Amino acid sequence: MTIPDLRQLRQFIAVAEHLHFGRAADALHISQPPLSRSIQDLEARLGARLFERSRRKVELTPAGAWYLEEARQVIARLERASRAMADLAAGGAGALRIGFVTIADYSVLPGLLTRFKAANPGVSMSLRELVTEAQLDALAAGELDLGFVLPPLPSREVESFAVNREKLVVALHEHHPLAIGRGPLAIKALAEEPFVMVPSNLARGLSDVVLGLCTRAGFAPRVAQEAVQMQTVVSLVSSGLGVAIVPESLLNLRRSGVVYRTVRDAHPRIELRVAWRRDSHSATLARFVAFARASAGLVDSAPLNPRPARRRLER
Q1: Is the peptide bond before 306 cis (omega within 30 degrees of 0)?
Q2: Residue ranges per domain, the chain?
Q3: In the CATH scheme, what is the code of domain 6-89?
Q4: Topology given in CATH for the domain delimited by 95-315
Q5: Which pTM value belongs to this model?
Q6: Predicted confidence (pLDDT) at residue 2 exceeds the cutoff of 50
Q7: For residues 285, 149, 137 and 118, what is the CA-based torsion angle, rounded to 10 degrees?
Q8: How far apart are CA 155 and CA 160, in angstroms?
Q9: Do residues 39 and 50 touch, judged by C-beta distance below 8 A?
Q10: Per-residue pLDDT tens for 127-183?
């Protein structure tokens, strides 16, 4: 037995649906004699009679009725595969492995991923919370497709753009004397305070801004505690182990026992950037990048769809 081709399957389905060779031929835009020969050839290939033919009517045999359902499933699966392949080629399907730093989870990331998933339900996403350096290593190793990272970044290896920019705030234990003040806080007021910070080698851009603020205020911060993740920094502040200067999106962490005050001193905004390998050719990644770029066009200093903050910001 030889396997029929797709043309014969489609012709068989047309005859089975019309139960008339002439009308089936018209629907297929061919003449009737070639259609009749094609069906005869199909029956010969299968070794079974698919139609009972008479001058008055054409009917499916039991074997033909069974084969009709099988043929329809074959055609449907091929059509689904073709649509899926076209969607994949256009970036509407596939998978994305995404890394992110803590502040992304408390600013733009939840809303951005929700909107992208709603617009691209065929794309699956897996997430890993990693510091910037670990994300860059994972990107280089091909273990991530893109990351939400803090600058500076190696310009030769990755492409990136800012998806959010935010100010810094001072995180204080709720019973700290400076927590009861109102209005922006001058950084020089922290000169004698123990600091909680992320190690500079893990968040160099943020560290440089914080150290620059302190230097311009006339002191070097006394680092009492270090923590890898920003939520741990805030947790240590809530335990009374020091003060911290953090991005304002950390208000959305909703950590009890912490009060935030805006920074009076002028300072650069902290950028959150989307980064990916320069040599990537993924259509799915390209679709996400285009979507994130469009979202970034709506971003100024406020986070997109931030989580509601439990603690109010003292201004």
Answers
A1: no
A2: 6-89, 95-315
A3: 1.10.10.10
A4: D-Maltodextrin-Binding Protein; domain 2 (3.40.190)
A5: 0.65
A6: yes
A7: -30
A8: 8
A9: yes
A10: 999 999 999 999 988 899 999 999 988 777 899 999 999 999 999 999 999 998 788
